[in-house]
Amino acid sequence: MDPGEAAILESSLRNSYRLFVPLPPLPAALPGRMNVIDHVRDMAAAGLHSNVRLLSSLLLTMSNNNPELFSPSQKYQLLVYHADSLFHDKEYRNAVSKYTMALQQKKALSKTSKVRPSTGNSASTPQNQCLPSEIEVKYKMAECYTMLKQDKDAIAILDGIPSRQRTPKINMMLANLYKKAGQERPSVTSYKEVLRQCPLALDAILGLLSLSVKGAEVASMTMNVIQTVPNLDWLSVWIKAYAFVHTGDNSRAINTICSLEKKSLLRDNVDLLGSLADLYFRAGDNKNSVLKFEQAQMLDPYLIKGMDVYGYLLAREGRLEDVENLGCRLFNISDQHAEPWVVSGCHSFYSKRYSRALYLGAKAIQLNSNSVQALLLKGAALRNMGRVQEAIIHFREAIRLAPCRLDCYEGLIECYLASNSIREAMVMANNVYKTLGANAQTLTLLATVCLEDPVTQEKAKTLLDKALNQRPDYIKAVVKKAELLSREQKYEDGIALLRNALANQSDCVLHRILGDFLVAVNEYQEAMDQYSIALSLDPNDQKSLEGMQKMEKEESPTDATQEEDVDDMEGSGEEGDLEGSDSEAAQWADQEQWFGMQ
Predict the structure, then answer these.
(1) What does the alpha-carbon distance between residue 265 and residue 234 come to, in Å, rounded to a whole number?
(2) What is the DSSP letter of 387?
(3) 134 partner at 20 to 30 Å CA-CA among 117, 323, 393, 485?
(4) Whole-Å CA distances, 93 to 86, 117, 254
């Protein structure tokens, strides 16, 4: 071999040898260069959750196969970012699992004074990295638990955070969870802590007022900010208004909110209009309630809050087509709120499709277990399906959530009456009367129960007279007074009562009952007119339809008899009786089904 070939062979051998000799490792991280954890963090901050989920999953698998690949702090970050991406995808149980692993990793990290260096991707100073907050991780875990309906676990995880380290949002969540669990004292403490840190947290103010904290005490906690920040002079009046709301003083609450709403700076505020609509509804003024809901809806076409009550009122008025349109519009806005399901349920309920109403009410409760209107819908559907004991459970829960709403008590009392538990109904009605005060609504509710017992008929009459003295236009009181008059066969008094009530309002039930009374005094033509008006207001009112059909059926043979009498008179020259059959009128007056009241 000549010297040239020998040199080529030696060079080739050396190159081959280099292939099997590992190169010296690269620096762990050069100044100014990002490692893979930095990229994951940036994608998470940018909201690229699906990308974070994929990459962090791969990196965690790599770390499991090679524990030396990432430092403990880097693995902690990966677990948190991966759990965050799962939370965003609503995989709450899986997210809780990853958050738990992250906290375990963080606990081990805090015990380690010296972090082991990684082989390839660790930063030069991992201890100094901005790690995800352990407090924030626990808050996310609590959010997962609440979504999974595991409130006790959520309270436990937040209770484990020292008081001094709790942020306002942690205290707010704790306050709401305590309130839901019926733990009023710690709930009040947490709400006050929120206000101490954020004195303009209005929802925390409402929370305190709902727990019977005095309005003056709540207002004192915001006094400094009212005095130092301009244009907040309305806040003390706002607190006063909602203090009235939560004590059940509807009339003073309405007047106070109206004074706020009339101020130029707060005119046409959707939240105030919604509150006014709800207060009118609680006070039994359905007409003004509907008007305020419509006004709020015009200002904000995407409004969802309160639309369940609005839909219920429309359904009661027989405007089922409007209810159906409202439900479709709300579903287009969001199907993750209880309101559209309740509105559709009201349409089904007043269409007498109780099984469907029950399903829709249950779906609404699943989305929001604090939805009072959903509980009332489901309770009413259960009651009408004969499942009274189950209905009672739902009405009691509604009362717990809204102790100042009379319709919750009305539903429960109707269940007691349906099961012939008059004593329980009387106890409940008396408690409502004492708790909410002697107003037209509570007086009528107590009278309703008294009407079920022959011994207390006179008491019912006295209570109804008091209610009508306070509010002559209160429909429920008028209906019950008419029922009492029909039992006493005082039809002329009943007609006068109903005409007076209908002078300034038009209501399907009142027109129908007036028709019943007119039949009893042989005023058939006007009775037919009243039934027609009732059906124009509510085409689905079965009792008005039955009344009209019965009149038509009874009139046909009468007309035929009259024609025969006329023929006889013409033939004989004798006078005939054209007055019709008095016995038929008496028979109608005796039939109590003509005076069926709602």
Answers:
(1) 10
(2) -
(3) 117
(4) 9, 33, 45
Q: DSSP character for 40?
A: H
What pTM was estimated for this model as a whole? Answer: 0.79
Spatial contact of 540 and 318, defined as CB atoms under 8 Å apart: yes
Instruction: Give kind and range of the element (H or E) at residue 131.
Output: none
Neighbouring CB atoms inside 10 A of 423's CB total 11
The DSSP output letter for 33 is -
Angstrom distance (rounded) from CA 194 to CA 461: 50
Size of the chain in residues: 598
Residue by residue, DSSP assigns 429-480 as HHHHHHHH-S-HHHHHHHHHHHTTSGGGHHHHHHHHHHHHHH-TT-HHHHHH
Q: 3-state secondary structure string, 392-439?
A: HHHHHHHHHHCCCCHHHHHHHHHHHHHCCCHHHHHHHHHHHHHHHCCC
Which pair of structure tokens corresponds to residue 137? 């991780």
**Tell me, what amino acid is at 487?**
R
User: What are the structural domains, with CATH classification, of the chain?
Assistant: 37-109+133-161 (1.25.40.10), 214-300 (1.25.40.10), 304-394 (1.25.40.10)
Out of 30-39, 367-376, 444-453, pick the least confident. Answer: 30-39
Asked if pLDDT for residue 125 goes beyond 60, the answer is no
Q: How far apart are CA 89 and CA 496, in angstroms?
A: 64
